[in-house]
Design a protein that fits this description.
- The complex is a heterodimer.
- By secondary structure, chain A is mainly α.
- Chain A has helices spanning 2-17, 19-37, 55-58, 65-72, 76-94, 96-107, 111-122, 129-140, 145-153, 165-193, 197-205, 210-234, 242-248, 254-257, 260-268, 274-301, and strands spanning 48-49, 60-61.
- Chain A has 16 helices and 2 strands.
- Chain A has a two-stranded antiparallel ribbon.
- Chain B is of the alpha/beta class.
- In chain B, a hairpin with a 2-residue loop joins strand 7 and strand 8.
- The model of chain B is unreliable at 23-59 (pLDDT under 50).
- The chains are: A mainly alpha, B alpha/beta.
- Chains A and B meet through helix 8 and helix 15 of A and helix 4, helix 5 and helix 23 of B.
Chain lengths: 308, 552
């Protein structure tokens, strides 16, 4: 009782002092309450046989039926495994690239060169995914650019590269890196430029070489930002965007490329299965929350600040 | 200087805002893809009348009608705003309907989100008078009480349609538009005969056949011979997209009834799984053999239609299986690039010369793409006769002509007994495929019946296309085996949905891998595996639906 009272009293005092800040943030809070928290009520349709005409109140309750359907599908283990593989591999390989790139670019002293490189590298981010996948498909065709280049190096390959399951992950990840590393590096470069120049000068006076400067000043400066971004990315582990996979996969690569979202996309084509896809989405979200909370805890344990 | 900067900043922000608002653009249409109805099941063509409906005996209504009542009509099909006209008032055809029928109609704007559309239909105050549905939706909407039961009204207020649907040759159509208990809920949008429903098949370069002294291949051996010759002489291969080979391949060559995906067919009244039949195994084996011999393009598994066009231009392929639109493209490309290629349609292969082909690509004669028109259950009582008269118009003599050709003298003329589109239509800048939606009732589905003549008139400038369709349509015996447009109950649908995707994935994945040579399928193990996936439940569901359909 005592503590509760004190909290509200504190809150009141804070509002009185910072009235305008609270008013500024009020629309945002209202937005989240209405469009996100209130909308969460809609999750209940995952436990029903939802029919839009009957509305939520009128639809039949089926409990965990849709989840049972989801988990008992023959291909569920495979699609779950593929989802996790793609996410984890993407994270492992594409997370360090913007960081390394930012570190290297940061060392560059020629200002105009630095700016040009930055602009050129983040341009691919703006290209539509469909266009990028079109490019990838053309380059990977049996007489496409990649096979041509391989031919010059002496490797004869007459196969369409996207027809080979073992090449799917490399193609998927590398094209993703190419498209996104420039844009993702912006935030790191911004962080790096915020590091106090005096620290570098002090280090130089103490006799530190470039590499040692990087190790003791630059990297520690980056770690808070990097760990925050890492936690956020971990929270998206189960939500592999299906558009790119849909554009690049085919029957031959199903066994590595067919993820939860693409498999259930095909399943839902027959009928507008609102409840089933909501159940799938709920499952995704629950797993993602567990992952993000775990990652946050680990990050705190490791001495870094977590997100919350 | 400071003021200048402020003004500049404001102007730029304003320009940005305007730019972002202009993003509400128009949807472009792709006519052929919107025509393809269901892709996962084999299709059955109903057998509708080949003649136009006769004059109604009791001319209850003459058009144009004399009435003040206005109707709100919601037509789906392609987006209401398409690239040719911004709204229905700008469409020549839509704006003249009132003159023809005497009934003024408001065309309601299209709602693309299905859930929102359903809310719109369910809203008593706002629902349109006439709305669009399809087979599945008729069952759902009637159960939910959104559409009106028309059975009592039809004989009196829609004599043309009533007479049409009750003709003996339209038996299958009647079965498709009525619910389980024989009640009518909609006016279908449909194609007159096979000409409208066949639009995919094999095509070949006639100039190469001539050069090699070969005749058009008939059996699978002939095909192999042609492919081997093409490969030796031109280095060319058989190619196509996997998507096209799923809806229309050459499975008829072994009398198989499924393409490269799972499907259920009807053999002597029993629903059977096409992919466990020997013939289908033979088909996949032959494709695997051809791939090993290098006769099939390695890009076959990943190509899209544009890549195929590119290969055709470069002379890397002489045979493919695709749709009419692709054929039109290949012909245009050959002209534009001066390759001398002469693309023509090719008959589906068969087991022996003279035998009928077993499986042909065709879809249902009734447009599945929301081509049915129903009355909202919330319509005013007094509007019902007028609404039914409007819908019945499309089944009358004048309505049929208007929907298919437009206005005589303006959009079409009769030449040698056949309607031909005038220059106004054919020479319109938008190109015939686009502008046809402005001058006729075609919009991804059709209002009433799409006549064979419509297609002939539309493709008047590309005779090879109509010849190709002639070749691709074959016998009606094969049609007997294709599953008709049955509707499943909710319980049956649940059973089916749970298992079918897994089965389909298994079938197409293994078939394609077998063709590529990555695996060799042991067909017995294949069949057993599919049984384990719940095939029986799917078959049982469709069997009961089929039995109900046939006993209607």
């Amino acid at each position: 009782m005592e503590q509760k009272k004190s909290f509200f009293v504190r809150l009141k005092k804070d509002i009185a002092r910072n009235k305008w800040k609270y008013i500024l943030i009020l629309p945002v809070v209202v937005y989240f309450i209405i469009f996100h928290y209130k909308a969460m009520y809609g999750l209940v349709i995952a436990f029903q046989n939802y029919r839009p005409a009957r509305g939520i109140a009128g639809s039949e309750w089926v409990g965990f039926y849709h989840f049972k359907r989801l988990f008992s599908d023959v291909y569920f283990p495979r699609s779950l495994r593929n989802t996790l593989s793609i996410s984890v591999l993407t994270l492992v390989f594409s997370f360090p690239v913007p960081i390394i790139f930012a570190l290297i670019l940061n060392e560059c002293k020629i200002s105009w060169f630095k700016r040009t490189v930055q602009t050129v590298t983040y341009m691919p981010h703006f290209i539509s995914l469909v266009v990028v996948c079109g490019l990838v498909k053309t380059f990977c065709s049996s007489e496409g650019l990649i096979n041509l280049i391989l031919g010059f190096v002496g490797i004869e390959s007459k196969e369409s590269l996207l027809a080979k399951p073992e090449l799917f992950y490399p193609i998927y990840i590398l094209s993703g890196i190419w498209q996104n590393f420039g844009w993702d590096s912006i935030i790191y470069l911004a962080t790096l430029s915020g590091i106090d120049v005096e620290q570098y000068e002090a280090a130089k006076i103490d006799g530190a070489g470039r590499l040692q400067q990087m190790r003791y000043i630059t990297l520690p400066g980056l770690i808070p930002t990097a760990s925050m971004l890492l936690i956020l990315k971990v929270g998206g582990l189960l939500s592999v965007g299906y558009e790119k996979i849909l554009l690049l996969y085919n029957e031959l690569t199903y066994e590595v490329a067919d993820v939860l979202s693409t498999y259930n996309y095909r399943k839902g084509l027959i009928n507008g299965e609102y409840s089933y896809s909501t159940a799938l989405g709920l499952f995704n979200s629950v797993v993602n929350i567990i992952l993000i909370v775990t990652a946050n805890k680990l990050s705190k344990k490791a001495g870094q600040s977590g997100i919350f | 200087m400071k003021k200048c900067n402020k003004v500049l900043a404001l102007l730029l922000t304003g320009a940005m805002l305007v730019g972002s608002l202009s993003g509400c653009g128009n949807q472009t249409e792709n006519k052929e893809t919107s025509v393809s109805v269901s892709t996962s099941e084999t299709n059955k063509a109903s057998e509708p009348a080949a003649e136009t409906p006769s004059e109604p005996e009791k001319a209850a209504v003459t058009y144009p009608m004399d009435t003040d009542i206005e109707l709100d009509v919601y037509l789906a099909g392609l987006a209401a705003c398409n690239s040719v006209y911004a709204n229905h008032n700008e469409s020549y055809w839509h704006s003249k309907i009132a003159d023809q029928t005497g009934i003024f109609v408001n065309f309601m704007p299209r709602i693309t989100d299905t859930a929102a559309e359903l809310m719109y239909f369910s809203n008593e105050a706002e629902a349109p008078d006439i709305l669009c549905t399809n087979q599945r939706k008729i069952v759902d909407y009637s159960a939910d009480g959104i559409i009106l039961d028309l059975t009592e009204y039809l004989p009196e207020y829609a004599p043309n349609y009533w007479e049409f649907i009750n003709r003996p040759e339209n038996e299958m159509v009647k079965r498709s538009v009525t619910t389980e208990d024989g009640r009518y809920y909609s006016f279908p949008g449909m194609r007159e005969n096979e000409y409208g429903i066949t639009y995919m098949g094999p095509m070949i370069r006639q100039d190469w056949l001539d050069e090699c002294g070969l005749k058009a291949p008939v059996t699978m051996e002939d095909w192999e011979n042609v492919l081997v010759t093409f490969k030796e002489k031109y280095g060319a291969t058989l190619t196509g997209t996997l998507a096209d080979f799923k809806t229309a391949g050459i499975c008829s060559g072994t009398d198989a009834t499924a393409q490269l995906q799972a499907s259920l067919v009807v053999e002597d009244g029993k629903v059977t799984f096409a992919n466990s039949q020997e013939e289908w195994h033979e088909y996949v084996d032959i494709l695997a053999k051809w791939y090993k011999m290098g006769l099939i393009d390695p890009d076959f598994f990943t190509a899209d239609r544009n890549l195929i066009r590119q290969k055709a231009i470069e002379g890397k392929t002489g045979v493919t299986v695709s749709a009419l639109s692709q054929m039109g493209n290949l012909i245009d490309d050959a002209k534009a690039e001066n390759t001398g290629a002469k693309w023509v349609g090719l008959e589906h292969p068969r087991t022996a010369a003279g035998e009928p082909t077993s499986m042909i690509q065709s879809t249902y004669s009734i447009y599945g793409n929301n081509g049915n028109l129903s009355l909202s259950a919330f319509i005013d009582e007094e509007k019902i006769p007028v609404a039914l008269a409007w819908l019945d118009f499309w089944f009358s003599e004048e309505g049929l002509m208007y929907a298919n050709y437009g206005i005589e003298g303006e959009t079409y003329t009769i030449v040698d007994g056949q309607p031909q589109f005038t220059d106004m239509v054919m020479k319109d800048e938008g190109g015939i495929s686009q502008v046809i939606t402005k001058y006729t009732g075609w919009n991804g589905s059709f209002v009433g019946i799409q006549l064979e003549g419509f297609l002939r008139a539309k493709y008047a400038e590309m005779p090879e296309v109509m010849e190709a369709v002639d070749m691709w349509i074959t016998n009606s015996e094969a049609r007997e085996r294709i599953m008709p447009l049955v509707t499943l109950t909710e319980a049956e649908l649940a059973d089916y949905n749970d298992n079918w995707n897994a089965i389909n994935t298994y079938v197409s994945e293994n078939a394609v891998k077998h063709i590529k040579g990555d695996i060799t399928i042991d067909w017995d193990a294949f069949n057993k595996e599919i049984e384990k996936m719940g095939l029986e439940k799917c078959i049982a569901a469709y069997q009961s639906a089929y039995d109900r359909f046939m006993s209607k």
